[in-house]
Amino acid sequence: MPLKSFNPVTPSNRYKMWPTYEEITKKKPEKKLTEPLKKSGGRNNQGRITCRHIGGGHKRKYRLIDFKRHKRNVDARVEAVEYDPNRTCRIALIHYSDGQKSYILCPVGLQVGATVTAGENVPPTPGNAMPLKSVPLGTAVHNIELRPGSGGKVARAAGQQAVVSNREGGYALVKMPSGEIRRFHEECFCTIGQVGNRDHMNEVSGKAGRTRWKGVRPTVRGMCMNPVDHPNGGGEGKSKSGGGRQHLKSPWGHTKGQRTRPKRQASEKFIVQRRKSKKRS
Question: Which CATH architecture has domain 3-201?
């Protein structure tokens, strides 16, 4: 999807790079495939902020995406490509031959009028879903299940893709978007192709207001805060954390570069090669 630049007639237009939205063919979503979306403001059920810098933004409705592709061996026609405010990629509205409609993630190359199917013996074309045991080696996939039947969890953001590199012992070796090589059960379903809207990472908002429309609040550096608010706060002038020379930390005490993944996590056995070649400390 191409991006468009603007003439710098205002300061906000000077570096602005917005998508053209030319691939979108339908503006209003299907009412039966949406549900209300309540804003949390980054707060949990106790009212405490657990995720900072969230609040405000335009009112949204959540689109019900079929991550499981539960209708197997039934052809569906792509009726439209739509914008989804809740994710970075586009979504495709598909219409099954029995009359049912649903949303799926729109991969690169999927056009209106195309036919998509989910099943074990379907061709490996963009938009089709199949188990990893049926995917040809070297094929780019997305929306991969972590456990059979759980629904796609991996590689769902704009432009992401994973590559099926090998199969052994009932598992498929998949190279993740991060570069990590991981084992997935060969019965886990995935969708063929790369997630669409590949130029999303090159978008430039151009102004703070558009970021606020998306529900993102301003972020302040910890060094600018007081000691009571952040470990890096305090000191005279631009000091390194309270006038001293202690290591930079997050508000929760994590030092810069520290690993946050638990050392004895159950899924460790499925990781064949980490995205970083250095030995874990």
Answer: Beta Barrel (2.40)
Strand stretches in the chain, DSSP E: 3-5, 17-19, 34-36, 61-63, 76-82, 91-96, 101-105, 115-116, 129-131, 140-142, 144-145, 152-154, 162-168, 171-175, 181-185, 189-192, 271-273
**Amino acid letter for position 168:** E
Give the pair of three-digit tokens for residue 43: 């707060």
Domain ranges of the chain: 3-201, 220-270
Handedness of CA 53, 58, 61, 64 (dihedral sign): negative
**Per-residue pLDDT reduced to its tens digit, 59-83:** 999 999 999 999 999 999 999 999 9
Close Cβ partners of 57 (under 8 Å, ≥ 6 residues apart): 39, 212, 213, 214, 215, 216
* DSSP letter (8 states) at residue 103: E
Intrachain domains 3-201 and 220-270 with the same fold: no
Q: Which overall architecture, per CATH, does domain 220-270 show?
A: Irregular (4.10)
Whole-angstrom distance, CA of residue 121 vs CA of residue 130: 8
For residue 219, is it left (φ>0), alpha (ψ between -120 and 50) or beta? beta
pTM: 0.89
Neighbour count for residue 127 (Cβ, 10 Å): 25
Cβ atoms of 70 and 102 within 8 Å: the answer is no
Q: Residue 126 is inside which H or E element, if any?
A: none
pLDDT tens for each residue of 115-153: 999 999 999 999 999 999 999 999 999 999 999 999 999
Residue that the structure tokens 């592709």 belong to:
69
Closest listed residue to residue 207, CA positions, set 196, 197, 218: 218
Regarding predicted confidence, which is higher, 280 or 135? Answer: 135
Residue 19 — pLDDT band, cuts 50, 70, 90? very high
